[in-house]
C-alpha cells in the first residue's frame, strides 16, 4: 500500500526537530561535462552521516510510551545500526543492535559511541534475524527493520521532500537501491510533490535484485554480493517492493568501475566525502547521460560513512 501525501507531510513535521535540513549542491563542472543540470541532496551531511537517521527517528516517534520504555532492536552492519542508536539516544530509548561478527570495527565503535547495545551474530541473514528475535522475546523491544518498515520509508521520504520543496521543476530524481527503503520513500515524495518528475534507481550489476524484481514482478534475491557498494547488498521487502513496483520508473545498473569513477569525481569536484553506495546514483546517470541531456536531475547522496583506510582509489 502506498502511503498518503498527508502521511509524508506528518512525517516531515515529526522528524524536523531531530534531523538536519541537508544542503543541495549544484556543481557547475559536472553540469558542463554531463550536459545535465544536477542537484545533489547531500545526506552525507545528515546526523550520523546518512539519510537513515530520518527513518530511524520517525519509526521511534511512532511508538507508544510503553514500547519506548522496552526499547528497540534491529539488525544492521552499518548505517541503520548507527542511525537507530543515535535516534534512540536522543529520544531516551534503549537500542539493541545485532551486528555480524565481521562488521567493520569502525562501525561497531560508532554504534557504541551512540549508545547502541551490540550483540554479535554470524553474518548470514537468518542468523541476524534469529538473534534479533531472541532479543525481542527477552526484552519486549520493538523490532524496526532498516528498510522494510512503513515508518522508516516515510522518514526516508522527507529527504526527497526537502529537495522538491526548493527545486520543484526536477525532471528526474535518482537514488541508489539496496534494501529499497530510500528509493521507496523518494518515489512517494516524487508522486505527491514532483511536477512530472520520475524516480530512477541506480544499482550495481553485482547485486541487481531490484532490477530483476521489476522485470519479474516478484522479489528476487542475489546469489553473490560482490560489490564495493557495501550499503546496497540487502534485498527488497514486502513493504517497500509494492511501492517501488508502482512508482519507480526504472533502475539503471552500473559496473564496479563506474561506481569508483563516480565516487572519485564527487570527492575531487564537489570536495565532499561520500561512500561507494552514494556514488551509484551518479554512476547510473553518467552511464545513460545522453538520454538526459538538458534535463534537471536531483540525486540523493545517501551517506558519507566511508572507511578511510580502505578507499578504492
From TrEMBL:
Belongs to the serine/threonine dehydratase family. Residues 16-303 form the Tryptophan synthase beta chain-like PALP domain. One of its GO terms (molecular function) is magnesium ion binding. InterPro entries: TrpB-like_PALP, TrpB-like_PALP_sf. This is Pyridoxal-phosphate dependent enzyme. GO terms for biological process: D-serine biosynthetic process. SUPFAM superfamilies: Tryptophan synthase beta subunit-like PLP-dependent enzymes. The keyword Lyase applies. The keyword Translocase does not apply. PANTHER family: SERINE / THREONINE RACEMASE FAMILY MEMBER, SERINE RACEMASE.
Amino acid at each position: 500500500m502506498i502511503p498518503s501525501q498527508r502521511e509524508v507531510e506528518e512525517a516531515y513535521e515529526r522528524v524536523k526537530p531531530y534531523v538536519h535540513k541537508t544542503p543541495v549542491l549544484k556543481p557547475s563542472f559536472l553540469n558542463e561535462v554531463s550536459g545535465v543540470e544536477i542537484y545533489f541532496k547531500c545526506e552525507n551531511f545528515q546526523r550520523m552521516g546518512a539519510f537513515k537517521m530520518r527513518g530511524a527517528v520517525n519509526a521511534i516517534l511512532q511508538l507508544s510510551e510503553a514500547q519506548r520504555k522496552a526499547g528497540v532492536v534491529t539488525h544492521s552492519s552499518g548505517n541503520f545500526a548507527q542511525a537507530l542508536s543515535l535516534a534512540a539516544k536522543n529520544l531516551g530509548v534503549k537500542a539493541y543492535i545485532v551486528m555480524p561478527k565481521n562488521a567493520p570495527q569502525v562501525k561497531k565503535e560508532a554504534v557504541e559511541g551512540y549508545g547502541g547495545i551490540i550483540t554479535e551474530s554470524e553474518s548470514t541473514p537468518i542468523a541476524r534475524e534469529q538473534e534479533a528475535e531472541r532479543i525481542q522475546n527477552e526484552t519486549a523491544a520493538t523490532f524496526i527493520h532498516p528498510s522494510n518498515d512503513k515508518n522508516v520509508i516515510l522518514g526516508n521520504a522527507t529527504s526527497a521532500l526537502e529537495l522538491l520543496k526548493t527545486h520543484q521543476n526536477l525532471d528526474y530524481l535518482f537514488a541508489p537501491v539496496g534494501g529499497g527503503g530510500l528509493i521507496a520513500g523518494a518515489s512517494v515524495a516524487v508522486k505527491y510533490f514532483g511536477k512530472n518528475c520520475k524516480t530512477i534507481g541506480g544499482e550495481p550489476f553485482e547485486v541487481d535484485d531490484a532490477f530483476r524484481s521489476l522485470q519479474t514482478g516478484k522479489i528476487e534475491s542475489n546469489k553473490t554480493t560482490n560489490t564495493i557498494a557495501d550499503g546496497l547488498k540487502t534485498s527488497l521487502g514486502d513493504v517497500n517492493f509494492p511501492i517501488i513496483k508502482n512508482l519507480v520508473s526504472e533502475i539503471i545498473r552500473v559496473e564496479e568501475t563506474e561506481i569508483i569513477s563516480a565516487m572519485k569525481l564527487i570527492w575531487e569536484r564537489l570536495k565532499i566525502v561520500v561512500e561507494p553506495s552514494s556514488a551509484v546514483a551518479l554512476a547510473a546517470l553518467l552511464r545513460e547521460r545522453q538520454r538526459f541531456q538538458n534535463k534537471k536531475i536531483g540525486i540523493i547522496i545517501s551517506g558519507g560513512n566511508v572507511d578511510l583506510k580502505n578507499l578504492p582509489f
